[in-house]
Design a protein that fits this description.
alpha/beta, Carbamate kinase, 17% strand, globular
Length: 255
Amino acid sequence: MARSLEQAAGARAGASPYRRVVLKLSGEALAGGQGFGIDPETVEGIASEVGDASRLGVQLALVVGGGNIWRGNADAAKTMDRATADYMGMLGTIINALALQSALEKRGVDTRVQTAIEMREVAEPYIRRRAIRHLEKGRVVIFAGGNGNPYFTTDTTAALRAAEIEADIMLKATQAEGVFDADPREHPDAIMFEEIPYIDVLRRGLKVMDATATSLCMDNDIPIIVFDLGTSGNVLRVLRGESVGTLVGARRQPR
């Protein structure tokens, strides 16, 4: 006998231990090997991974950085005040969000971009309840424009949005396998942590995220998984609860 729609939805949701997730992508991830700007092939690859993940039944929100377009701490930004440089970086995140939206919708993934800096002609303003409603309807929501204020990183924005939408976990996609006790590029013998408490990340100054973002996750009990975006299929593996990367915060649940 055919299963009901409710049963089918439950089976899909059962493929992941998480109900609602925030995935943080760096702007540099969109640049691919060219190191600057937006590489269409790389964006297509990320959209493919996110599209597969969205079909697990997980409510998925993205936060994307803007470092591939503009970095507030770059040499060019040192000739202007910090606030102006940060606002320029926020505009870069909106460009990246629109590129991701286009690539996702080509794959049939219903997507909404919400920005903390209002641009009604191209994206919705960020409204918490509307974002949650989109997620409940199965849409992927991309949060752009930072949190609308200078002096905050997009990591902090991701932690803030995760707290606001009551996400179960925050995923930090990086160019490294996880969190190491030293920079593995400079120290080949660096050891990767499988799990590490928030407070140890803060005490040791490990470069997971900035201290504000880590503290915000700690205060709101939001675990963080740091993993390598460059390994194909990793987003799906993390969402299925496989032991990938480093878990910051609560211990992994046995499966």
